[in-house]
Amino acid sequence: MTYDITFARRRPGRTLLETLEDRAAEYDPDAEPGPMRLTAAQRAAWERILQRVTAEVGPVTSQEYLYSLTLWRDGPAGHLQLDYIGDSADIEIPYRYPGKAALPITVEAYRVARIGEEATGLEGFDGQTEQPTAVGDIETAAAKLGGIARWALDNLT
């Protein structure tokens, strides 16, 4: 289980939340995903993400898979993962940052989200705070991450 930030391109006439709800309704868990087919522009956006995150946040590791491009950031703030498939993306943060320990990785995740938005034109949405990342409150997001991590630590270990 992870703290997730989801990215999508808003559909015409729909809000970002409506677009994400539409995508969720269309999802078929039994369907085999097709291989990723990125355009030249989408590959260029990925390269911009890698370069900017490395320059502005810190070193990353990346890998190309059949279904996604993946970036891992392991730094002093913690660990996050960004998966990109061209028309959507997701940032995942593990629930291992209880309480105030969640703030540094949340700040980093929101910075990576902003870079991703600027490089791709996709919009980020933090489902836990129910706000677009562009206007989201980082301290509220960190409190959500830290609270769930604290609960998990107290109740699941």
What are the defining features of this structure?
single chain, 157 residues, seven-stranded antiparallel sheet, 7 strands
Helical run tally: 4
Question: How much helicity do the residues have?
Answer: 40-55%
* Overall tally of structural domains: 1
Question: How many strands in all?
Answer: 7
What about the largest sheet?
7 strands, antiparallel
Alpha-carbon distance between the termini? 14 Å
Shape: globular
- Strands ordered across the widest β-sheet: 2-3-4-5-1-6-7
Question: Structural class of the helix and strand makeup?
Answer: alpha+beta
**β-sheet strand percentage:** 15-25%
Low-confidence stretches: none
Rg calculated over all Cα atoms:
16 Å
What can you tell me about this protein's structure?
The protein is α+β, with helices and mostly antiparallel strands and 157 residues long. The chain has one domain (2-156). It is built from four helices and seven strands. The chain has helices spanning 16-26, 40-56, 102-120, 138-156, and strands at 2-8, 61-64, 69-75, 78-84, 88-94, 123-126, 131-132. The chain has a seven-stranded antiparallel sheet with strand order 2-3-4-5-1-6-7. α2 packs antiparallel against α3 and α3 crosses α4 (138-156). The protein is globular. The model has no long low-confidence stretch (mean pLDDT 94).
